[in-house]
Design goal:
about 0% strand; mainly alpha; Helicase, Ruva Protein, domain 3; about 150 residues; 2 domains; 6 helices
């Protein structure tokens, strides 16, 4: 039984990333902070939200977010403040405007280019194969080949 409790505690470690001294007294503000912090990236852990991360920087970001909410910022204003300070990389879901639009479209464009290059290669290969198959050996070449194979 003790082992099961220990295993469950180890598996639930991300739950303990928000420290008790960070939790706001107002449950509505705390829920807003939790909802917003799940969309912000920990700059140390890369693909982990600040809500799940135990890094010191993630803690600082959680506290900053809660400070902005207590100060009366809306959700958008609090996120904009953090993005202005740390850059758009802090968002787990980046926006699809401006220079990010190029990044969003780069994958599908590269896929289409690769498909075009592949189809072009296959078409040229089949044409080359057909032209090679049409050429046959002359009688002199056949005789020479026969002699080489007999030796």
């Amino acid at each position: 039984m003790k082992r099961l409790v220990l295993i469950l505690m180890l598996l639930a470690s991300p739950v303990f990333s928000v420290q008790p001294d960070e939790v706001l007294d107002d449950p509505v503000l705390e829920q807003r902070a939790r909802d917003l912090s799940t969309g912000l990236r920990c700059l140390v852990c890369r693909n982990e939200s600040i809500d799940e991360s135990n890094a010191d920087l993630a803690r600082d970001l959680r506290l900053l977010l809660r400070e902005r909410l207590v100060a009366g910022d809306s959700d958008e204003e609090a996120i904009a403040f953090i993005v202005d300070r740390y850059g758009e990389y802090v968002l787990l879901k980046p926006t699809t405007s401006g220079s990010n639009l190029f990044l969003w479209l780069a994958g599908p464009i590269m896929l289409l280019i690769a498909a075009g290059v592949g189809l072009n290669f296959l078409r040229n290969r089949s044409k080359a194969h057909a032209s090679v198959a049409d050429t046959s050996l002359s009688e002199d070449e056949k005789e020479r080949l026969r002699r080489i194979l007999e030796d």
